[in-house]
């Protein structure tokens, strides 16, 4: 009799622990700028939200969770940023500095989803949408996926499924329902093709924006971009509604962000370079224990997401050796008061291809150094007082500029290896750089 009671108690304990495992919904937009939604990323800065685009579902998500004013992508281009997210480290440490990189320094067995499933084998993982790498989603731990997909896979002739957004959403909701019915916690990454060029939108949505026309000097039709953004928001709303209808919203961590930035009215640069426009991105997080309507000013980066999810899903589980991200959990649960602890407390970016001036950048504290390998010029900015990166302080604060440049080069050398680093120092860069006299930066309109 006693043994039966013990078995029953053990069963209750196990099932209770199983039920508490949080679901993870990670939504990754494509090329959405810091001001690409109608949510202010910086509470006191009107320019950190769009005056034209409408994203009511993201506004609702922000009201229910935490918005970040200083969220950074791991890279200014899609592929490298996505690799860093999957592996929890900088692109240089991963040795994935460009989309042609094939010799990563970490095995895919250490990936985000694989690590999560090692921590808790009850999780089921799915990835729908844009993938962009040679490693398959399955090798990185996803049980269900759309396979290896590229930018062009997002374009469609189906007028009811522009940019594949609605199809991705339907597959997502079916996956969520299946996992709830089977009793499995899930990790679901939705990598939407929107709002990457070329823009596509539902005809009914586009009709709302017809008066906008094309943006002066911009690529593509501004009205279609606005409509595509609203369609994406509609899809986000549909997935969030599914969580509500299945009564799992209270036990689901939701993370919404972009893979890189884009041009804005107030930030320097855009996609493809390391000005703030290219790497600062929208970020909203909602979940168990997270107070709503909070704007957080702590700098965070997308390669933190792996550590954050593991901390929620399996507190105390040891991350793979080499992971550089830190968990946001203490920050999220404290209303933005607690710090994020990382193995190395600095952000580093590297971009030597598809840009006129090969460049790297480092941020420590409020200071950011932007270094150009061809001109050997280092620009120092105080981001707390100069959001637009308009005042170079390198000559005024040479000790800070020198320290950051030394740290930056040491990080690049360690990650890419001595031969690649020496080539950068000699001015030997990959072919195919665009011509340009400037630094490949400038404010958008």
Residue share in β-strands: 5-15%
> What is the strand arrangement across the widest sheet?
5-4-6-1-7-8-2-9
Rg, nearest Å: 22 Å
How does the major sheet shape up?
A: 8 strands, mixed
Computed structural class:
alpha/beta
CATH architecture term of the largest domain: 3-Layer(aba) Sandwich
For the secondary structure, the number of strands is: 14
Q: Into how many domains do the coordinates divide?
A: 2
Helix content: 25-40%
CATH-defined topology of the largest domain: Alkaline Phosphatase, subunit A
Query: What are the secondary-structure elements, in order, as H or E?
Result: HEHEEHHEEHEHHEHEEEHHEEEEHH
How would you characterize this protein structure?
With 445 residues, the protein is an alpha/beta fold. The chain folds into two domains: 23-333, Alkaline Phosphatase, subunit A, CATH 3.40.720.10; 347-426, Arylsulfatase, C-terminal domain (2-Layer Sandwich). It has twelve helices and 14 strands. The protein has helices at 2-20, 56-64, 78-87, 112-119, 165-182, 203-207, 222-245, 276-279, 305-313, 329-333, 398-416, 418-426; strands at residues 23-29, 66-68, 71-72, 124-129, 144-145, 186-191, 252-258, 283-286, 294-296, 300-301, 347-351, 359-364, 367-372, 377-382. The strands form three sheets. An eight-stranded mixed β-sheet has the order 5-4-6-1-7-8-2-9, sandwiched between helices. The chain has a four-stranded antiparallel β-sheet with strand order 11-12-13-14, covered by helices on one side. A hairpin with a 2-residue loop joins β12 (359-364) and β13. α5 (165-182) packs parallel to α7 and α11 (398-416) crosses α12 (418-426). The termini are far apart. The model is unreliable at 4-19, 215-220 and 440-445 (pLDDT under 50).
């Amino acid at each position: 009799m006693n043994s039966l009671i013990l078995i029953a108690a053990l069963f209750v304990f196990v099932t209770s622990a199983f039920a508490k495992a949080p679901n993870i919904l990670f939504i990754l937009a494509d090329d959405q700028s810091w001001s690409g939604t109608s949510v202010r990323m910086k509470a006191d800065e009107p320019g950190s939200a769009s005056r034209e685009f409408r994203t009511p579902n993201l506004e609702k998500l922000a009201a229910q969770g935490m918005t970040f004013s200083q969220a950074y992508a791991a890279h200014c281009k899609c592929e490298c940023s996505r690799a860093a997210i999957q592996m929890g480290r900088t692109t240089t440490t991963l040795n994935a500095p460009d989309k042609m990189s094939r010799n990563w320094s970490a095995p895919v067995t250490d990936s985000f989803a694989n690590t999560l499933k090692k921590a808790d084998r009850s999780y089921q993982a799915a990835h729908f949408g844009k993938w962009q790498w040679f490693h398959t989603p399955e090798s990185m731990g996803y049980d269900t996926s759309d396979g290896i997909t590229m930018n062009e896979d997002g374009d469609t002739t189906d007028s009811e499924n522009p940019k594949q957004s609605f199809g991705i959403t339907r597959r997502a909701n079916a996956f969520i329902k299946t996992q709830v019915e089977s009793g499995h916690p899930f990790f679901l990454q939705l990598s939407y093709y929107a709002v990457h060029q070329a823009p596509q939108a539902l005809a009914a949505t586009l009709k709302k924006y017809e008066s906008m026309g094309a943006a002066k000097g911009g690529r593509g039709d501004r009205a279609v971009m606005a409509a595509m953004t609203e369609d994406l928001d509609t899809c986000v709303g549909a997935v969030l509604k599914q969580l509500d209808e299945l009564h799992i919203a209270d036990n689901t961590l939701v993370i919404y962000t972009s893979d890189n930035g884009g041009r804005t009215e107030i930030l320097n640069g855009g996609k493809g370079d390391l000005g703030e426009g290219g790497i600062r991105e929208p970020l909203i997080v909602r979940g168990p224990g997270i107070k709503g309507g909070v704007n957080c000013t702590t700098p965070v980066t997308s390669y933190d997401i792996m550590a954050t999810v593991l901390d929620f899903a399996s507190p105390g589980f040891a991350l793979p050796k080499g992971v550089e991200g830190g968990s946001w959990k203490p920050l999220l649960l404290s209303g933005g008061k607690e710090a994020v602890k990382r193995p190395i407390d600095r952000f580093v970016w590297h971009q030597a291809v598809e840009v006129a001036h090969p460049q790297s950048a480092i941020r420590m504290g409020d200071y950011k150094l932007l270094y150009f390998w061809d001109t050997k010029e280092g620009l120092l900015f105080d981001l707390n007082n100069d959001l637009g990166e308009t005042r170079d302080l390198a000559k005024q604060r040479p000790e800070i500029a020198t320290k950051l440049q030394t740290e930056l080069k040491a990080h690049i050398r360690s990650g890419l290896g001595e031969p690649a680093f020496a080539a950068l120092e000699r001015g030997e860069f990959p072919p195919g750089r665009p011509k340009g006299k400037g630094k490949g930066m400038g404010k958008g309109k």
